[in-house]
Amino acid sequence: MSLSSQINAPRLLTAVALAALATASQAANTSKTWCADRCDQIVIDWNQQTHQVIKAATGYQDPMAASRILAMVHLAMHDAVNAAQPRYRTYAYQPKVSTSKSGADAAVAAAVAAHDVLASMFPKQQEMLRATLDATLHDAGMGASIAEGKKLGAEAAAAMIARRADDGSQADEAYKPGKRPGEYQFVPGFDFVAAPHWRAVKPFTMRAPEQFRVAPPPALTSTAYVVDFNEVKATGSKAANARRSADQTQYAAYWYEFSDSGWNRIARTVARDKPQDLWQRARTFALLNAVMADAYIAGWDSKMHYNFWRPVTAIQQADTDNNPATTAAAHWEPMLTTPPVQDHPSTHSALGAAAAVALAHAFGGDRVAFTMASPSALPEAPERSFKSFRAAAKENADSRVRAGLHFRFATTAGLQLGEQIGHQAVRDMLAPVGGAQ
């Protein structure tokens, strides 16, 4: 019988008996929580809640900021459960005294940690967040373990907030577009570059934003450039005669949504068939969101460093690139709207590759089949199926060429960047302690 049912059932229990139960709960095995074998759902619920809060507050228009918030929420949850019962190394929260004998409820700690991180960032949504927390903890009941869990969750959240207080995400940086061939120029529909300061944001898993800076794009006069120029020009066009198959058109649209949102949905989809306990689930989503946040940071570092133009500019202005093998098309348009940031590398590809590494690590291997819908998919093809995370990441990268948004060399560099970030993180971060798996 759980502590909550013991407390709520027995009107026959005396105050002395209730006190005895609370004392007993403190001494109990702290890996057992009020939610038993469904505690991992708390991680998934707060992942969805985080997306909803961001969308309600900002319309989910800034994926870099969203990725930072998601990483903070999930790392705080991870720290909270591992402070209650250590199984993996924590990230930001280092209790001064061991809390594993305090009897703190790990599930309560996780929920409070997520709530407090979000409440600090979205004070106007305090009421909604409080209602969600109350719903999460409705069955938790009362007692010393619940109180300790709340305390632990609040401390883990505070540690995370302090860790990221001066991480550069609130900075501002001016940007002027280039004028010479190969330099980035504003793309149609935009008169700005998205968050140029993001190149200097403090990473979550990397030593520095430039740790894995990609190799430069090929020279405009090179054969490699011509090959990739002609590919995106022919297959990424909005025109009806684009040399793109129906399937390529479908997955170009399918993967168009922000990568951080899509790969979190992949994780939730796979989680339905891949049981994990609370500790494993918290670590899975912490690693996933930490590597994606860093893929944005590292990608922005390389983008700003090379400042390379997008295909739409390159194709329309090919008569200026000093390469007789490229032909200008003044009215060429990509299949989908080009985001307002430089081409090289593709951060969409980087996030997908980093996420694939993290999820393969979490779920016991790359060959995990799944089927998932996408909000940006065409109505006639709302879902796609994949046999592995790697296959999904490769299609995700290829979609950016088929949509006319990136040169092939940018997606290749993005895949390599994401894999480097992912492999370093799963090797060095949140490692097991005491023989945990």
Write the layout of secondary structure elements.
Blueprint: H1 3-8, H2 15-27, H3 40-58, H4 63-84, H5 106-121, H6 126-136, H7 144-163, H8 223-235, H9 246-254, H10 259-271, H11 278-306, H12 311-316, H13 347-362, E1 370-373, E2 383-386, H14 389-402, H15 408-428
Antiparallel strand pairs: 1-2
Short description:
With 437 residues, the chain is mostly helical.
Q: Kindly report how far apart the N and C termini lie.
A: 28 Å
Order of helices and strands: HHHHHHHHHHHHHEEHH
- The assigned CATH architecture of the largest domain is Orthogonal Bundle
Mean pLDDT: 91
Fraction of residues in H or I helices: 40-55%
Number of strands: 2
The number of distinct structural domains comes to: 2
Q: Identify low-pLDDT runs.
A: 1-31
Largest sheet, strands/sense/barrel: 2 strands, antiparallel
Strand content: under 5%
Report the structural category.
mainly alpha
Q: What is the CATH fold-level name of the largest domain?
A: Vanadium-containing Chloroperoxidase, domain 2
Shape: elongated
Please identify the top-level CATH class of the largest domain: Mainly Alpha
Give the neighbour order of strands across the main sheet.
1-2
Number of helices: 15
